[in-house]
Amino acid sequence: MVAIKLVPLAGGHLEFWYRIRNTAENRRHQPIEITKLDKMRLLLENFSNSNLGDSSQLGYKWVIYDHQQEIPVGMVSFHRLQIEQGIGRIGYTILPDFWGRGYGTAGVTQVLELIFTHSNMERIEAVCSIHNPASRRVLEKVGFSYEGIRRGYLKIRGRRIDHFSFSILKSDWNKSSDQ
C-alpha cells in the first residue's frame, strides 16, 4: 500500500480544500457545488476539532499527504449520523492526478482505524455513484460490505443518481485487523 500521512484539516489547507472541491473531475461523481473561498473559510470552523472521542463534534476532515513527496493528494471525511446508535459515514476525494495509485484505499484504511480505535462508532457507511467503479473498488478493498443500490440517492449536477451502498462494522474491522 502507498505510504501516506493523514493531517487534520486546518487553516493552512484552505486553498487545497478549495482546489479539490472545485475540480470538475471530482464534482462529476459527488454532490459538490462550486464553493467560494470565503464560504469555505467559515465552514473550516466546523472541522477544527480532530478529537474523535468528543461526541459533540459531528464532522471531521483529514488531508491525505503522499508520505515521500509530502504533498497533499486527497481528503477523507467522517460524519456522525446517529451518535446514540454509533453510526457514521465516510467519504473521500482524491485529486485526479493521483487517481489509481492507492491513496483513497490508504486514506480510508487509516481513518477507519482512527474511528474504530478512538470513538464509540460501531457502523460506518459509505456510498458511491454507480458511475464511479474506482470508488467502489476502494470500499471493497478496505473491507466494506455491499448492501445494495440507493435509487436516486444524491442529486449531482441537477440529476438524481443511483448510488452503491456499503457499510463496515467495528466487529468486521477487528476481525480483519487480527489476521
Q: Could you characterize what this model shows?
A:
This protein has one domain (4-178): Aminopeptidase, CATH 3.40.630. 31% of the residues lie in helices and 35% in strands. The protein is built from six helices and seven strands. It has a seven-stranded mixed sheet, with helices on both faces. 28% of the residues are buried. The mean pLDDT is 90.
Instruction: Output the helix-strand order.
Output: EHHHEEEHEHEEH
Shape designation: globular
CATH class: Alpha Beta
Q: What is the helix fraction of residues, given as a range?
A: 25-40%
Number of DSSP strand runs: 7
- Give the N-terminus to C-terminus distance in angstroms: 17 Å
- Order of strands in the sheet with the most strands? 1-2-3-4-5-7-6
Give the integer mean of the pLDDT values: 90
CATH topology: Aminopeptidase
Q: What structural category do the secondary elements indicate?
A: alpha+beta
Fourth-tier CATH superfamily name: Gcn5-related N-acetyltransferase (GNAT)
Please identify, by name, the CATH architecture: 3-Layer(aba) Sandwich
Which regions contain 5 or more consecutive residues with pLDDT less than 50? none
**Radius of gyration from the alpha-carbon trace, in angstroms:** 16 Å
How would you characterize the largest beta sheet?
A: 7 strands, mixed
**Percent range for β-strand residues:** 35-45%
Number of H- or I-type helical stretches: 6
Count the domains.
1
